[in-house]
């Protein structure tokens, strides 16, 4: 499948369940706009320590960056076991882009 995207956009196949509560499912194609900055609350594609890429909600704190999943259970406010936020020193995070859409084929 090839999507016709603007020059500063790209697509990735999303794997995992950290964004399931906002409707992004394992196997979805996510559309990312290339940019190296983010605002609090943006869902970003971030590179951690130049090794691991992740798609999470971004929050900047005084001395850290929080990457927060969106996969809390629907019946309680308790997060699933692997759904806690991770905090990083800013120098360990590189923003690769911002989520702007998803494509799901049925």
From TrEMBL:
Pfam families: Peptidase_S24 (PF00717). GO terms for biological process: DNA repair; regulation of DNA-templated transcription; SOS response. It comes from the Bacteria. InterPro entries: LexA-like, LexA/Signal_pep-like_sf, LexA_repressor, Peptidase_S24_LexA, Peptidase_S24_S26A/B/C. The keyword Zinc does not apply. One of its GO terms (molecular function) is hydrolase activity. SUPFAM superfamilies: LexA/Signal peptidase. Keywords: Autocatalytic cleavage, DNA damage, DNA repair, Hydrolase, SOS response. Residues 6-73 form the Peptidase S24/S26A/S26B/S26C domain. Belongs to the peptidase S24 family. This is Peptidase S24/S26A/S26B/S26C domain-containing protein.
């Amino acid at each position: 499948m090839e999507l016709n995207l603007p020059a500063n956009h790209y697509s990735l196949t999303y794997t995992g369940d950290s964004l399931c509560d906002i409707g992004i499912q394992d196997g979805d194609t996510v559309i990312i706009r290339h940019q190296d900055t983010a605002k609090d609350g943006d869902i970003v594609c971030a590179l951690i320590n130049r090794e691991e890429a992740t798609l999470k909600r971004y929050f900047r704190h005084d001395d850290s960056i929080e990457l927060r999943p969106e996969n809390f259970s629907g019946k309680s406010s308790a997060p699933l076991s692997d759904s806690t936020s991770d905090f990083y020193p800013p120098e360990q995070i590189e923003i690769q882009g911002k989520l702007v859409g998803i494509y799901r084929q049925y």
